[in-house]
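Hi there. Long-time user, first ticket. I'm pasting a complex I've been working with (about 489 residues overall). I'd like to know whether the download I got is complete or cut off, because the file seemed smaller than I expected. Thanks.
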Amino acid sequence: MENVEKKLREEAKSLLAEKKVDVVVGYEKGTLPLTATPCFITTPEEADRLVWNPFCVQNLAKFVHDLLGQHHEAQKRVKPEARRKKVVGVVARGCTSRSLVIHLQEKQYTKDEIIILGVPCGGYLDGKKLAALAGGEEIREGSLDEGKIVVKTVSGERQAALKDLLADNCLVCRFNQPVIADIRTGEVAPVAEAEKEYDPVTAFENLPPEARWAYFEKEMAKCIRCSACRNVCPSCYCRICFADQSQPRWVDIGADPSDTQLFQLMRMYHMVGRCVDCGSCTAVCPMGVDLRKFLKKLDKDAFEMFGHRAGVSLEEPAPLGAYRETDGEDFIFEPGKKIEA
Amino acid sequence: MTEKQLAKEWEPKIVAIVCNWCTYAGADLAGISRIQYPPNVRIIRVPCTGRINPFYILRALQEGADGVLVSGCHPGECHYITGNLTARRKFAALKSFLGYIGLEGDRTLFTWVSASEGDRFAQVIRGVTDAVRALGPARKLVKGPLKI
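Hi, the file is complete. Here it is re-exported in full:
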C-alpha cells in the first residue's frame, strides 16, 4: 500500500508540474482517526497530501462529473476562441473507473478530459462496522497495521481484522483493478469472492412475497429523504432530478410512506445496468437503509436479462438504451395464461 | 357499510396505458365490432409504449389503481420502428423489480395488441380484469388511507 501511495504522489506531482492536468481528485487524510476524505490537488507541492488506504470510501467519479459539468457550463458564456479545455486527474479504483466508463458512454465528457490514475483496491472499511467495533463510542485513536485495526476509545482498546470490517460490496467485488486507466500505480490486487455476488439477492428472492414487501416497507420507513444517496451517486447526475421537479411533480414530498417508497423505487430503477456497486449510497446513508439489497437485484437482472455489466466496456451501451430482437418475452401477459409473480 | 359489504361491492380499477397506433386502434375495432368487455379499464392513449415513463405505472398504483395494463404494437410492428423494443426492456426490468419488492405480479401487466385484433383486445381486458379481481384491492404502494 505504501508503494502505491508513493507512486501515486509522484505521478500526481509530475502531471501537475507538466500541466497535463488542472486538478487531481484524490483522497487525503481525514480529520478523524481512520478516515480519509476527498480532496482536490491543484499544485505539485500539495500532491504529498494524497493518500491511498482502506479508509478511502467515496466514489470520486461524482466529483469528476461535477467539475467538468460546471466547467462546460461556464465555457458556454465564453467566446468560442477563448474557450479552454479542463483536464481532471482522478484517483480511481475499480468501481470509480467503472463509473467513469458510464459517464464516457453517456457522453458526459470525453476521454481526453480525464486522466485516470488507477489504483489497486482490496476493499474499504465500512464505517458502520467500525462504529460497531467501537461500541458506539467515539474513536480517540486508531491504527491499521498488517491487516489489523486497533481503535482506542474512552473505555479501552479494541481490535479486529481488517477483513472483518470491509464493506459488504467489497467482499464480493470482482473489479479490484480499474477497468480503464492511463497510469497504473500498483500490482494486481487479489480478487474477492465474486462468485458469491448475488447470493443475498437469490436468498431474498426465495422469500415469500409478503416477507419481501414487509422488508421493503421496513427499510423505506427509515428513509428521511435527505437525498444523500442521490447526491453521492456517480450515476445520479441529472441537472434536475425527478424528485426535485415541480412540473410535473413526479413524487410528492409528504410524510406518506408511499411517497418515500416511490422516490426510492424510482431512483433505484434508474440504476438498471448503471449501478457499479461502489457502496457510496449505503456508506453515506444516515439511517442505514439497506439499499444494496435492492440495487443488487437490478444489477443481477441487467446481467441475466441483457448480459450487461455496468461500466465494463466503452462500446456496449447501457441496457435500457438498447435492445435486441431476441430479448426475453416471458413476462408478457397472454389472456388465459397464468404468469408467475 | 361494513368492510365486508365494501369488499363485495368493490370493482377493480384498472389503468390501461396503450399506444396510439396499435392497441388504441384495436380497442376502437373492438368498439365498432360491438364486442363486450368489462368496463373496469380507464384507457390512457400515448403515442408509443416507448414514450411511457415507468413512473406513470408507479404513480397510477400510488393513486389507487388496482392494476396497470400497458399494451402496444407487437415487436417488429412499431410505428416508430423500435419504440416497443426498448420499452420491452424497460418493462421487463420494472416488472422483475416490482416482483422482487413483493408487489403482486398481476398488478402490472404488459402485452401486445395490434390494430386488427379487436377480439384479442376484449380477451386481454377480460383476462386482466379477472386477474386483478382475483388479487383484490391494492394495498401496497397506495397513498393515504385505504380507499375502496
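A couple of notes from our side: Residues 198-321 of chain A form one domain. Chain A is about 35% helix and 15% strand.
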